[in-house]
Design brief:
Blueprint: H1 31-37, E1 42-49, H2 53-63, E2 73-74, E3 77-83, E4 89-95, H3 104-113, E5 118-125, H4 129-138, E6 147-148, E7 165-168, E8 178-184, H5 191-199, E9 207-216, H6 220-230, E10 236-240, E11 245-252, E12 255-262, H7 267-275, E13 278-286, H8 289-300, E14 306-309, E15 312-317, H9 320-323, E16 326-330
Helix pairs in contact: 1-4
Length: 342
């Protein structure tokens, strides 16, 4: 068999290359900075696998109305992006070779997905990455050493400049889904990058941001304790009758994670039985909910019903077969719509 070149770590999955490394000395940080680092974090992105990169891209663009941005194919694994105006995004992955080169993170996801579509990994962004890592270490968690983009990263500024991104994960993971923290360098301003920042987040369906992640587990009370241990407070109880799930709404910066477990028989229980803990859904804020619903109904050739969800008026797109998870579209959150459902 012809030796294959070693794949370049992707932005998100590079974190898994360090899971077997020995722990590095903790970065020094002021106590007060460490105390608030995690609370100041924000939802950054979710990693979603499709059965092929063209199939998942087509579902996102044609059926759902997103603009899908190009990525790269490395070691037989392709990725593409759906970027939003607030810097959050969805990263799409798919196997495009009979002999793909997986890093440990990809192997872990594929062991759960078995070649299917879905998501088990997400990232939170923190502008105080070193302090966040130290605070989590002080809480008895197990953050990995920091890992950075390579000096020859084709999307970075090259040698002599800060790496385009830095991140750390956990070994073992504190949550049922795979979590990592990430931060980005300020890149050199160029006309091409300015154009990408302006045009990249313009979506035909009016999508504005990735506002929430639905994280399914078998024991939401254990998950609640772990979030509080990590420094997230203000959790409120929530129910999602549209998928028969209940749990907690976890404030993360201006957005929320929904820590869920099945609430009796129904879609959530079916999903947990089929694939265990997972990223069960994504909530997307759109400028015009009626316009977004019209596009999705045309894309899926079906009528959809709305409901009042955690972010106010919303509808659920029938994306489980295409994406392995659900997409919820909702109107921009109003001041009088706290994180609640039902």
């Amino acid at each position: 068999m012809t030796p294959q070149p070693k794949p370049r770590p992707t932005l998100a999955y590079a974190l898994c290359a360090i899971l077997l490394a020995s722990a590095a000395p903790a970065a020094s940080a002021a106590a007060e900075a460490a105390a608030t680092a995690v609370v100041d974090s924000e939802i950054d992105h979710a990693l979603v696998w499709g059965r092929s990169i063209d199939r998942i891209s087509s579902a996102m663009a044609v059926k759902l109305g997103f603009q899908v941005r190009p990525g790269r194919t490395t070691g037989g694994v392709a990725n593409r992006y759906v970027r939003f105006g607030d810097r959050s995004y969805i990263e799409l992955f798919a196997i495009e070779s009979a002999h793909p080169q997986f890093d440990p993170g990809m192997q872990a996801d594929q062991a759960l997905l078995r070649g299917g579509a879905g998501s088990h990994t997400f990232g939170l962004r923190s502008g105080a990455l070193d302090a966040a890592r130290e605070r989590l270490r002080q809480q008895g968690l197990a953050p990995t050493p920091l890992f950075a983009a390579a000096a020859d990263d084709p999307d970075g500024d090259g040698a002599g400049h800060p790496p385009r991104w830095r991140l750390f994960a956990f070994d073992p993971q504190p949550l049922s889904s795979h979590l990592f923290f990430i931060d980005y360098a300020d890149l050199v301003a160029t006309p091409e990058r300015a154009l990408e920042r302006r045009i990249g987040p313009q979506h035909p369906n009016g999508a504005q941001s990735l506002s929430g992640l639905w994280l399914l587990s078998a024991d939401v009370e254990a998950e609640r304790e772990r979030y509080e241990r990590m420094g997230y407070t203000g959790l409120t109880r929530i129910r999602l009758p549209q998928i028969a799930a209940r749990g907690y709404c976890v404030p993360v910066g201006r957005k929320h994670l929904l820590a869920l477990q099945p609430d009796g028989a129904g879609a959530a229980a079916d999903a947990l039985r089929e694939r265990g803990p997972q990223v069960l859904g994504l909530s997307i804020a759109v400028a015009d909910l009626q316009q977004a619903q019209w596009r999705v109904e045309r894309g899926y050739e079906t009528r959809l019903s709305g409901y009042r969800g955690a972010w106010g008026e919303a509808f659920l797109a029938p994306t489980r077969d295409d994406l392995g998870l659900w997409l919820e579209f909702h109107a921009p959150k109003q001041a009088d719509t706290p994180c609640r459902a039902g």
